[in-house]
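Quick one: co-fold with adenosine monophosphate.
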Amino acid sequence: MNVLVVGGGGREHALAWKIAQSPLVEKVHCAPGNAGIAQVAQTWPVQAEDIPGIVALAKEIGAGLVVVGPEAPLCAGIVDAVQAAGIPCFGPDRRAAAIEGDKAFARELCRRHRIPGPGFWTFDDLRKALAFLDNRSDDPIVVKASGLAAGKGVTVAKNRAQAAAAVRECLEQGRFGAAGATVVLEECLEGPEVSVMALTDGKTIVPLDAAQDHKQVLDGDEGPNTGGMGAFTPVSFVRGRSWGQIENQVIIPAVHAMNRESRPFRGFLYAGLMMTNNGPRVLEFNCRLGDPETQPLLMRMQSDLVPYLLATAEGRLEECEPMAWDPRTAVCVMATSEGYPGSYPKGLPIHGLDEVETGPDLQVFHSGTSRRGSDVVTAGGRVLSVCALGADIPKARARAYEALERIQFRGMHFRRDIGCR
Ligand code: AMP
Ligand code: GLY
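Sure, here it is.
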């Protein structure tokens, strides 16, 4: 079978790498891909958001399965279009992807179905939002653009003034365009965070092991939020009782809620959770795998992923066995461009990639890279990540950092405390 992976980030590199190992797969294709993905798949210059272009490509290469990585094409209805062309496509359809694409909807869904989350208030009128803040205490509050903002639409405001500035960015200055035309204000919760992803076809649920992301750009969780600076899995505090709470209070009710609202969800459902003293609370739902959580997760996944993806797309996930996982820990450290998550340069040569000896226990997954002649150059804010397996977090960390120290590009930044919490 030929498989087409849609997207061009680190998550898609890990997906293409994993899918290429399946004995069911003849050839992996990827659109648009990146310089790293080109080592495991044939890449095509078709953008992930170009839905007619992706449908045409899937037909041209005779794809037996299309796997969509990023949220933007999912929210725009890529799965509906590929399936309408008669090709199995993995991922939620447009209506189900709203669980990520419309945060106001996701919050209302949680309220209607008693899925635990922070208190929240939704505004599309600047004056009303500012008046609400004026009448509130000066405590921290979270401001979110309701639409898609590539992980950058959230401000954890320490006080009213910061919150008002973030609200103005959305509703007055249009920083996120239409995605910021509605803001969601949320009660600020405290506790450790965890990312839980589950495969579901709307009837059967196959949970993946938990992972932890590091969203802020600087060590010690300082600085602005990014798409993710590093991740590790498994997460020691998520087992036994707290795992049961996550399944029973969040994952199962969310799948059920989407069915009841006639938006059956098929794909990877991602819950970004805060483990508070009162149990898990949903910070966000995503309609796809996390990036960078996918990279360490797929290094630990021993099962062949392809039968799960096909079974999900075809609504027969009940036929699949539970997944097998490498019990070791995987740590992933992201290297980013100078200035990210603000503006950053592109096209800088990346050195040292050949000096990293990759194998089943150590991988370099490319995020924003491209090829220029014989050079691999930077092409995004998040550039690449190194992922390593080890007996425990310190061993996996040591391995990942040792490899990352061999790679350089001008202005390269990475956090030195991934896995240290
Ligand atoms: P999100 O993209 O919605 O997961 O938010 C990005 C990050 O902002 C999360 O990983 C949290 O660190 C933080 N955050 C989001 N919502 C809240 C909340 N209600 N309370 C505290 N922190 C939050
Ligand atoms: N790493 C967080 C996300 O993918 O949304």
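If it helps, The mean pLDDT is 94.
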